Structure formats: structure tokens, C-alpha cells
UniProtKB/TrEMBL annotation:
Name by which UniProt lists this protein: Gfo/Idh/MocA family oxidoreductase
Transmembrane segments: none
Pfam families: GFO_IDH_MocA, GFO_IDH_MocA_C2
Positions of the Gfo/Idh/MocA-like oxidoreductase bacterial type C-terminal domain: 206-293
InterPro entries: Gfo/Idh/MocA-like_OxRdtase_N, Gfo/Idh/MocA_oxidrdct_glycsds, Gfo/Idh/MocA_OxRdtase_bact_C, NAD(P)-bd_dom_sf, TAT_signal
Residues in Gfo/Idh/MocA-like oxidoreductase N-terminal domain copies: 47-162
Matching PROSITE patterns: TAT (PS51318)
Domain of life: Bacteria
Amino acid sequence: MEQSKKSHLSRRSFIANAGLAAAGLAMMPSAVFAKRRKLSPNDQLNIAGVGVGGRGFGVLKAMESENIVALCDVDWKYAKGCFEHFPKAKRYWDWRVMFDEMADEIDAVVVATADHAHAIIAAHAITMGKHVYVEKPLTHTVYESRLLTKLAAKYQVATQMGNQGASGEGVALTTEWIHNGEIGEVTKVEAFTDRPIWPQGLNRPEEVMPIPDTFNWDLFIGPAKMRPYNNIYTPWNFRGWWDFGTGALGDMACHILHPVFKGLNLGYPTKAQGSSTLLLTDAAPTAQRVRLTFPERKSLAKVKMPEVEVHWYDGGLQPLKPEGWPEGRDMNDAGGGVLFHGTKDTLICGCYGKDPWLLSGRKPDVPKTQPRITSSHEMDWVRACKESPKKRVETLSPFSEAGPFNEMVVMGVLAVRLQSLNKELHWDGENMRFTNIGDDETIRTVIRDGFKIHDGHPTFNKDWTDPVNANEFAQELIKHTYRDGWSLPEMP
């Protein structure tokens, strides 16, 4: 039976009070975990999708050999195609209702909502013993990434972040070349994307629009701060708004920087610095530049891993082409690119680690030490879901790797949003805090740019926030304060 929009708002006190709903979910895990279905490789996985109007629909279609048993979305117009493609699946507005009603029928959950809701859905699914596949970026904040990493380890579920290049040949090949010492020691990496291709750098709209009957705005807002509805925020455009997305960096770095994180065995950065075009309170800027510094890591058999700087560019910016670059060759390969500057050679690859090559023209022939898959990124996760924790072969972007990697990505967002402190930030990764922001430092951001043409002259009359404590502002970016009634499980 389809769930009506009206009924989902009124049925049971569980839904009337979202806080009680979260508490109820938090108390369920041990019992549900113990009853996890045992599946053989030939059994079909029972999958639920949350956020199925866009990318989620594509992910589920890649898994349609399995049982798609439930679909949840806050925008039923946007989700219409998915609903019609999987007509037997139960339909929901609210993932909490779906989890409550179908806990015993669901084996695994695909999460492809706006970025800000990834963690709360995935975390509760994990504590119910459900396997999870989460679209990139994995989470909105550093704390949320750390939480999903630890929860996945505790509950021993199969996990995968939706950075499909992780299962491609390029990431494996790039990693093998680096680990075999083909380019020597890497002390600098430059990476970029041609995104955003959605609106960024916008003033917050002042117009309040009527909410469509096919859309539940309150559920879209979820754990974020409430604001009036405007159709500029969603669908798809959410990426450019700080409360809901992580801008071009959060979106594309999960694809482009994966061979960097994996190939160089990176962990937590120790320093971060960012700059951008006009930084607004609500919207990501049109172009950004970030530098993250990572400490020396343990040497490998054939190459050392010294301190390395990772430079990021977006919004149309690219690194300067190195000496010896082939004239006329476009650096942009499928949406971006990476340059690994080694002491022996320079390695270049495209987005997703695509088509790696060496600036010298050499073509390395090295042992294949990295795992490959013969299925798709999505179906490899399905395979892992059906294996017992003790015998499971991990996917190629499990949360044990994707969580720390995503912390690197959202650290870039932090560097940009804290740029007005005018310093390189020092990061204590283990404790998730900056160590060189003074207790008395304050920060302000631009609410709106106030741009006008007056007598033929461009003018700005910027509207700024009041100064706020910089440490408190930074901590809120590291770990969000959720809206009343929405909460995460405790950190293990």
C-alpha cells in the first residue's frame, strides 16, 4: 500500500515526535542485528532506497537483479520514474517510517539524498544491522565521517561509498605505479575539477514559494536549520548550498582525489588553507583553491612516503601545465585531473583515476598488486552484503577507507569556510579540532553581496553577519548541531 503524504505526518507518536523516532531506532539495533538474514550468493538481497529521484535511481537500476522492496523520497514528482520502474516496492516519504515498518524485510539500504542527510540515515541503518551504500560525498562533516567509519566496524556490515572510480582500472594502476617507485617520491599533488555545473555563489533567495503537493519540505530539511521553501534549492541544486551540500569540492573530490588518497597512503592532514571567490554564508563560492598538507607516512618497499602537499582547484581553475606538457593536450579528462609530481617523473590521470600516463612518455609494466573486480561498483557491494563478516572480501570503497578519505575532502570545505582567519590552519585529526584558533578570535561571513549597477558603475553593499567566536563557528562545521528532533547514534 502506498503511504499518503497526509498519513505519514499523523500516524503514531513515533512520527509526530522525530526525537522519539530517533530514540526508538537507537534502541532497536541489538535485536535487529541478531536477526540479520543469512544469505547465500544466489539469494536476492532485499534493498531499500532513500533518495531515489536522481542518482539514487541510477544506483538502484544497477542493482535491479536484486529485490528492490522499498523506496523513499521527499519529492514524489522527482521520484516518479523510479517509483514506476519498481512498481512492487513500497513507497515512503519518511525513511524513519520505512525503517520502523520494514525492519525485518530490509537487508540493505542505498542512500542518495542531499549530502546533509547522508549520515543520519546511514548511521541508523547500520545500527539496525543493515548494509549500506552511500552516494558521495559520504557525509557533510568530519564528525559524521568518523561516526560512519566506527559504526561500520562495530556492526560488521558491508559498506560502499558511491565513488565508482574506486572500482575502475585507473585507481588500481595509478596506485601500483606509485607503490612500485615509478615516479619516485611524491611531495606535491595538484588536482582540479571543471565543476560546478550547478548554481553557486548565489545570494539566499528572499522569495518564499508555495510548497508543491508532491514535496515534503520539512523532511527535506531534516537535521538542518529550517528555512522557507524555494525551488532554487532542490532537486540537484542542493550541492551549491552549504546547509545541504558541499560545493564542487565535496562533490567531485570524492572521484578525483581517490587515487591520491589511496596511492599515497594518506591519513589525516596536519595543515589546511583555502581561498575562493566571494564567500557567502549560504552558498558555496564559484571557484575555490585549497592546500592540504599530510605528514610523512611509513615507507613502502620501493618508495618513501614523505610529507606531501595536495592542491585543489575548481570553478574553472586548473594547475599550470608543467614543463614538457604536450602542446594542445587538454588537462581536463572526463571532468578533472590529477598531477602527481614525483622526483623521477610526473604521473597524470583524469577524473576517477582515468587513463593514467607519465609525462616522460614511459609506459610502466608493474606487478598487479591491487584488487580488481569483474562486476560493477554497485554489484560488488551486493556481493559483499551476502558474505559473512569473517569471510567477506571488502568492496573497493568501504567505510574503513571512504570514511577517512571523506574527512580529507570535507577538510577542504572547512579550509575555504574559515579562510577569513587569514592563516594556515593546524589540524589535530585524532581529536577532530583545530589547534591554532585563538579563544578570542572571531569570524564574519557575507550574507548577501548587495551588488547593483548605479549610474553605470558596479557597486557592492555587502551585508555581513555579526562577529562570532571562531572556535565555536569551526566546531559547528566539524560537528553540526542538528535541528530539534533529529539525532545521530552515539560514537562507538
